[in-house]
Write a structure and sequence with these properties.
Blueprint: E1 7-13, H1 20-27, E2 35-41, H2 48-52, E3 58-61, H3 68-77, E4 83-86, E5 91-93, H4 97-108, E6 112-118, H5 127-140, E7 155-158, H6 159-164, H7 177-187, E8 191-202, H8 208-229, H9 241-263, H10 266-282, H11 284-294, H12 296-308, H13 311-335
Parallel strand pairs: 1-2, 1-4, 2-3, 6-8
Antiparallel strand pairs: 4-7, 5-8, 6-7
Helix pairs in contact: 5-11, 8-13, 9-10, 9-13, 11-12
Length: about 325
């Protein structure tokens, strides 16, 4: 009789008192009983640990704040399962999630890393959270058979594979350890695949400010990493060709509008309209995803935000990333 492989669910937590209870409640409501839960608390300063202790999981506490990559590595080292599933303290897995992870890995084998994504419906009910959920779900499921990376909000991997490849790189750029890990494993010959049935709800609680700050921060880190990885112009998850075209066409449209105001040249106004139409055409599948999920009114608001506001923090973050890269390069030259 074949034993069902145990899945070790590894959750890093840092000051997650507002979300970790919802995360753990969902995990223990799984329709698959063959799992263990390891929560690694990254030296939280809130009530997280007391909340975690209410659940039958293995709690590991770090003596100092070490980052999510280190916490995940510690969790993997403490695990007993043949399969590891990484998620986050602000994610709420669906009840079928663990079963789907196991099935996907057993079907594909140890040479594969399997990823999931966010439900298009976030845990919290706000416009900017809904926008973000649809945007990420669409971006991460565009290339399910050959994604550029697997995100750690829903990553499944055989424990032996994780151990053999030395886990996540610590003390690197924040939030991008999963991208580096995915790229490293792909260079070693492993395959990446997305299973759209492996789903978690994300707890965003996004306001306009939080959405803009998130875009700014992630864009800066992504640009800094991509320059060093020589893949700045790749079609990679949320850093897609569509988003890059969106930013370029936004500034072309803005420039044409400003020049029209200065010159009254009607050709420039027509040109700005043409750039906007091009942007809509290029991003039509994302805009359709907004409509299919929440209807026409939501899709119109999302289109306005995506086409006319979102490019600003994304581009500003990219500029910050270039500046940080230049500063780092200059520092290395000076220190030689």
């Amino acid at each position: 009789m074949t034993m069902t492989p145990l899945v070790s669910i590894i959750i890093p937590n840092f000051n997650g008192e507002s979300t970790i209870e919802n995360c753990l409640r969902a995990v223990f409501a799984s329709d698959d009983p063959h799992f263990e839960v390891i929560v690694v608390d990254d030296h939280s300063e809130d009530e997280s640990v007391n909340i975690i202790k209410r659940f039958p999981c293995h709690l590991v506490t770090l003596e100092k704040h070490s980052g999510a990559a280190a916490a995940r590595n510690v969790g993997a080292n403490k695990s007993h399962g043949q399969i590891l599933f990484f998620t986050d303290a602000d994610c709420v897995p669906t009840k079928h999630c663990i079963k789907e992870v196991r099935h996907a890995l057993l079907t594909n084998g140890p040479d594969y890393i399997v990823g999931g994504t966010y439900l298009r419906q976030p845990y919290d009910d706000g416009f900017f959270s809904k926008f973000q959920s649809v945007f990420i779900n669409y971006s991460e499921t565009k290339h399910i058979s050959h994604p550029d990376y697997i995100a750690t909000h829903a990553m499944g991997i055989f424990a032996s594979t994780f151990s053999r490849t030395n886990g996540f790189k610590e003390h690197r750029l924040p939030i991008l350890e999963d991208v580096e890990f995915s790229h490293r494993l792909r260079r070693l010959g492993y395959r990446l695949v997305i299973n759209p049935q492996i789903l978690v709800q994300h707890i965003f609680n996004f306001s306009l400010k939080k959405s803009i700050v998130n875009a700014l921060k992630k864009s800066s880190y992504w640009t800094l990493y991509s320059i060093s990885n020589n893949d700045l112009f790749s079609d990679s998850g949320t850093a897609s060709y569509e988003l890059k075209a969106n930013v370029i066409l936004f500034y072309l449209t803005l420039t044409a509008c400003l020049l029209f105001l200065l010159t009254d040249n009607i050709t420039l106004l027509a040109l700005s309209g043409l750039f906007t139409i091009m942007n809509i055409v290029i991003n039509r599948h994302l805009l359709k995803a907004f409509k299919d999920t929440y209807g026409i009114a939501f899709s119109l608001l999302s289109a306005m935000y995506y086409l006319w506001i979102f490019p600003l923090p994304v581009s500003m973050g990219s500029v910050i990333g270039f500046i940080k890269h230049f500063q780092t390069t200059q520092a290395l030259v000076i220190n030689k």
